[in-house]
Amino acid sequence: MYNWPKKAPRVGVFFVLVVWLAPAGADTCAPPQHTEPVKVRYVTDGDTLVLGDNRKIRLIGVNTPELARKEKPAQPMAIRARDRLRQLLFQHGNRARLLYGEQQTDRYGRKLANLWLPDDSNLTAELLREGLGWMIAIPPNTRFLDCYQQAEKTARATDSGVWHQPGYAVKNSAQLGLRSTGFQRVQGRIVRVNQGGGATWVNLQGRFALRIPDQDIRWFSNRPNRSWVGRTIEVRGWAYAKKGELRMSVHHPAMLRFID
Known about the structure:
Layout: E1 36-45, E2 48-51, E3 56-59, E4 62-63, H1 78-90, E5 95-105, E6 111-116, H2 123-129, E7 134-135, H3 145-157, E8 171-172, E9 182-196, E10 199-204, E11 208-213, E12 232-242, E13 245-249, E14 256-258
Parallel strand pairs: 3-6, 8-9, 11-13
Antiparallel strand pairs: 1-2, 1-5, 2-3, 4-7, 5-6, 9-10, 9-12, 10-11, 12-13, 12-14
Helix pairs in contact: 2-3
């Protein structure tokens, strides 16, 4: 089970070879027949909210910029994402319908769920369509992945929100230092692919390595192998420093795409 990165208390809370899918049908975002009616008590940040019964919900399929915490200021678009989520809910009396993911809870006790407004609009898709966050794919919670990919594609095509912010431009793997942690989009040429330690490792130029755990390799129809070496990819996810290099765990191919 994947443990979603925890955001700061009260303020806030790919990787996969992504081949962008063909435009999804309009019904891919539609709520299933059986959902749970809920009332939202308050919004913590752009992708996290608390229900009236105090369940803390982390929206599946989206990661929004971080609000201020400790000595770090709010990231660009963080307040806008939070306020937009509040607005969308307020317009519907803070009522929504909820469907848990196959993995329902992370190790921090947050519930992982998809949410719809009473008019059947999907909250994750609305945020992605307006460029207020990035699509993320964490199996097994990928039921509405087609919808979320298409929503992000709309924002990218119109250069909206985070896609218009220079600070969120894709970074070159060879130019990243060990302090470049947190959610990143990274581009680089693959220099090595190997297996070991319960994972497949894809090394990019510089000190940057992608780690695909063995339990997630089944999601990759195009499995990493020597044919990947020399190709350039773009990847997204949470970078962390370990053993003198930056690493990023990739759990689904929608978090990756070849760009050569």
